[in-house]
Structures are given as C-alpha cells and as structure tokens.
Design a protein that fits this description.
The chain has 191 residues and is an alpha/beta fold. The protein contains seven helices and seven strands. Helix content is 30%, strand content 18%. The longest helix has 15 residues. The protein is globular.
Length: 191
C-alpha cells in the first residue's frame, strides 16, 4: 500500500513544476564559488502552491542566465545573494541582464541564495580570474555582514583570531551518488 501510494505521488508530482535545485557542485580552494552543474536543467517553484514557477538550463558556469559566460574584460559582473540569483524571474528579465542590455556590455550574475559579504569577496576574486572583468557590482543587503561571521557549508566566512581577520571557507563536498539519486525524486523535493 505505502509503496504504491508513494509511487503514484511521484508520478503525479513529475507532471507538476516541483523545484529541482541546481545539482550543486563541490566548493573548495580550487572551485571557491557555490554554483550548479553546467547545463543542468532546473525547475524553480516558490512553495507548495506552485507559485512563481520557471524552468530552464543553467549556463556553462552553472548559473541561471540566458547565455553562456565567456572571458571578457568589458563584462559587468554582478555579485550578490538571492536578489542576484533571482530564481523567481526569467533570466532575461533579471537585474543583471537588464543592466547588460542597458550598458551594451556582457553582464554576468554571480549570485547564490544565502551568499554573504565574505562570499562576495571570494566571488569577486574568482570572477576576475575567470573572466578578466574589471567592473564588479555588488548588491549588499542588511544581513550580509552578520552572515559573514558564521561558518556555513560551501560558503566563506570571516574568521577572527588573535586580533586578525581572515577569509576562510567551509568546504562542501560533492553530493554522494545516493544523494544525487534521492534529489531526482519529485516526492522528496516536494516534501
């Protein structure tokens, strides 16, 4: 009975826009910015009532964008948290892509839900190395500094030790094969 009910619920939910996540990659010294798997399909849905849904495919760097990112010294890199990631908005309508269109320059969103000021510092260095960009816009929100003082999985934080401040990273391992399999279940994602 239970397995039949769970199987039926899984089939029904596969027809609905249940959030899939971005199949996040590991974060470490070599890959210091949290991002999704390049070219992974995704579906975003705000809550149980399937509000604010959209679907797409992540770009070549694992970010939501209507185009791939390429090295460009004139690129505008917009760094921030969920406001920059903008899950509920189609990529072409995000602040980043609208700024790029208005300025007639490529614009790249490096934004992740939960990013803090410490993550912005690491993302700025990473973006400059990856793209050669000299223009960075950082969207600061009220909790960015306080969130920077807390160690969170896959994110950077400010470490205070002996009167010194340093930037540190809490490494996030790649998900296990079992976790990747479970994450593909719509019933699991919905629950």
């Amino acid at each position: 009975g239970f397995l039949c009910t769970a199987g039926l619920a899984e089939l029904i939910l596969r027809a609905l826009p249940v959030s899939t996540g971005y199949d996040l990659l590991a974060v470490d010294a070599h890959d210091p910015v949290l991002r999704g798997t390049p070219y992974a399909p995704y579906t975003y849905c705000r809550d149980w009532s399937f509000r604010l849904t959209n679907s797409g495919v992540l770009n070549n760097y694992g970010f939501r964008s209507s185009y791939d990112y390429v090295p460009a010294s004139d690129a505008i890199v917009v760094i921030g948290n969920s406001f920059v990631q903008a899950d509920a908005i189609e990529p072409r309508n995000t602040m980043t892509e609208l700024i790029g269109a208005a300025m007639r320059h490529p614009a790249y969103a490096i934004g992740v839900d939960g990013f803090s000021l410490a993550d912005y510092l690491a993302a700025a260095k990473w973006a400059h190395t990856q793209f050669g960009s000299h223009v960075l816009l950082v969207l600061l929100t009220t909790g960015d500094l306080s969130h920077s003082c807390t160690s969170r999985l896959g994110e950077h934080y400010l470490r205070f030790e002996d009167g010194n401040i340093s930037l540190d990273l809490t490494v996030r391992q790649a998900p296990s094969a079992f976790k990747r399999l479970i994450n593909k279940s719509k019933l699991f994602r919905y629950a």
